[in-house]
Design a protein that fits this description.
This protein has a domain of 109 residues: Gcn5-related N-acetyltransferase (GNAT) (Aminopeptidase), CATH 3.40.630. Helix content is 30%, strand content 32%. The protein starts with a helix and ends with a strand. The chain is of the alpha+beta class. Strands 1-2-3-4-5-7-6 form a 7-stranded mixed β-sheet, sandwiched between helices.
Length: 156
Amino acid sequence: MPNSRYANTVIKLAESQDEKDNLDALLWRVLWKPLNLPRDARAKFRIPGEEIELVAVNGRKIVGGLVAYRAGENEVEIRHLAVDSSFQRKSVGTRLLTRLFDLIKEDNPVRIRAYVRNTSYPFFIKCGFKLATHDWIEQPDFKVHGITFKLAEKYL
């Protein structure tokens, strides 16, 4: 029987400004603060396109989040996916991806791409993504921490 603490987590579009602010705080705390990147790091990673912001809410707390952009007519790019450490390995990340897939399914076919960290690519592979590049991509702010990236993609 699943632990009710995790079963009560709801995945939804971020609607209020408070939810969006808390999503930003979560992304910074999980993804960028450990790398000593600035609090406004997310702004540096924005790309053109319609933004899709999903949150995982447990009680009143945002415990996970996903940010994606419609990068073209039939293309979506996942820019950020983060889950609070106390909720990791509880299917929150998988449920965020599944919700994204459900939202964009009607745009058939859809290519979903993500530049995945060397620390998280096994998760994306488990969720059906395939590595689209052989070489690791280096970005100076991340390389100093041993983090490199590969392009992964999935078609719906």
